[in-house]
Amino acid sequence: MALRVWPEETLAPAEAQQRLRQAICHAIEPSLSGPVHDALDIGCSVGVGTLALAAWLDQRQAPARVSGLDLSAEMLAVATVRDTAGRIQAWHHAAAEATGLPSASFDLITLQFVCHELPQAPTRAVLAEAARLLRPGGVIALVDQDPDSAVIRRLPAPIATLLKSTEPYLEDYFRLDLPAALEQAGFIEVRREACDPRHRVLVARRALF
What we know:
Rossmann fold
């Protein structure tokens, strides 16, 4: 995925992946007012973004407790194997909209390339659950395709049609005003920052009340 977002550059796979993950973390940083003690990566899949998040937080501060959550037991099994250093606090098997985790237990929650896989109603439910899980003033970061990206807007019609055929909820995602949905879920100070020519990071803070 990371290789395809810089089409005019020749990057090795590891280099492209590192560049993307660094850009994501760079976008999150301005919304963090202090150390992150507990972080949760929702929709973590095989843990690529979860491990990158943990590595960044290790460099930023004293080590944080980082966990991943996914609905797929198979993906979590792979994530556990990939976590060779045992860096992740826990790999939770649960639905993103009903995690069963304690309220107000995280300072940072990320959803990396998750929302475009969901219809609008489940996306709103996941945002509400994230607001419940975050401590007051905690930060949420949504990484996903940018509907306003020139790269996406210039896609030839056949390619766009093919993309939508493999991503059944992509149209729902493009039609959803995600910044407004964040505000409706109780988030404030919504920021948008591009992390590459095709993807954006939406960062917001949970209200203090």
